[in-house]
Amino acid sequence: MARLQVETVINGEPREFLCDANQSMLDVLRDELGLTGTKEGCGTGDCGACSVLVDGRLVCSCLMLGVEASGKSVETIEGIAGEDGLHPLQRQFLENAALQCGICTPGFIVASKALLAKNPNPDEETIRYWLAGNLCRCTGYDKIIRAVQDAAAEMSHPA
Amino acid sequence: MESYAYAAPSSVSETVALLAQNASEGRQTQILAGGTDVLVQMRAAGHTPRTIIDIKTLAETNRLDVSADGIYIGAAVPSAVINEHALLRSALPGLLEAADLIGSTQIQGRATICGNLCNASPAGDSIPAMIAAGAICEIATAAGSREIAAEDFVVGVGRNALAPGEFLLGLKLAMPSAETKDAYLRFTPRTEMDIAVAGVGVSLTVAGGRCTQARVAIGAVAPTAMLVPEAAEALIGTDLNDTALHQAGEACKAAASPISDKRGTAEYRKKVVAVLCRRAIVVAHQRIQGA
Known about the structure:
The structure holds two protein chains of two kinds.
Chain A: E1 4-10, E2 13-19, H1 25-32, E3 51-54, E4 57-60, E5 73-75, H2 88-95, H3 105-118, H4 124-130, H5 142-156
Parallel strand pairs in A: 1-5
Antiparallel strand pairs in A: 1-2, 3-4, 3-5
Chain B: E1 5-7, H1 12-24, E2 29-32, H2 38-43, E3 51-54, E4 64-67, E5 70-74, H3 79-83, H4 86-91, H5 93-101, H6 105-108, H7 113-119, H8 126-132, E6 136-141, E7 144-149, E8 154-156, E9 159-160, E10 167-173, E11 180-187, E12 198-207, E13 210-219, E14 226-227, H9 229-235, H10 242-255, H11 266-288
Parallel strand pairs in B: 1-3, 2-3
Antiparallel strand pairs in B: 4-5, 5-10, 6-7, 6-10, 8-9, 11-12, 12-13, 13-14
């Protein structure tokens, strides 16, 4: 059957793509648009590796159809860094060594960005609950939590 | 070979017409709202391709009205949105804490409580809470619409009361008085990202120190979440003393017909549902007292 034509905005840029009716947004990002920063972990919404923002709302792109992006604004890991370098979250994940294999990292950073937009100064418990849908099987979570806390501090008190 | 198709109708009448047309052509349909259950099911082996009808573009399903005249939660309103509604949080804290227990932040960004109801899992956390709160389901039909109580919506494991050609538009609830509060408690082995072993929703009205109205609903301990009128009867007319709480808990235990599985044995679930009932009553009562 004919593929569906979708007009959307990705990382601030208007984009058009073709997709199948049952193709996930994750597969569209990776296979149609070449945005492979967003990862597939479980494909069932349990691990958070495919986290993206849709109209500012944190979602699993594996649980969204590509066609549902029509008329929406999608932000992926590729849109996190600014023109003048890494986002504080990205920098603090590096500083704190909050990653090993890196598959979960884009999801953690996108999810953490959504948290800091809602709550610029979250306590540890808030961070842990917010990130409960992001699984890491390498580092444990302490370094990730510290990276988010350090990024929050940096963003509220820029050097 | 049949393939998937996608439609995003712009009106309820167009949606109902599309459902009828698909049925007449022998095509299967899948209503899509948040999609957090639907997309997982679509990926399962042996799933038959069908026409996906996205109801997120309808004005009716996006309604979220909270006023003294009543509460309406449209079928496409995600849990994250209802949980951010301060007035709704004070009016129906139990329903919102149930919605807040379902899945991660990511899931709640898309998942809807109406979808939780339609999915009809025995362990759906929002279902006992909406039954306790007295939610009425507004269903779009070919003739217009019809209403049924939330406790009558789920008719079996994974089965709901929607007839072919119908879909759920939203939930209607009365605005609770200051003397009425709800609560939902569930038990899971860990604090987050788990499926209920047992769950209890309660809604109480307490005036002059006496319980004047009560609704108690249990989940994950029977094929469907269910209202337990005997538990409510044990509370009404009392000052919610320990004896009344114990009797309500025993009524929940008696109404439960759980299975034994990896999350707990039937015997354990019956014991836990009584404990959760007593505790949920205490929480709702404290909320009425402003504690």
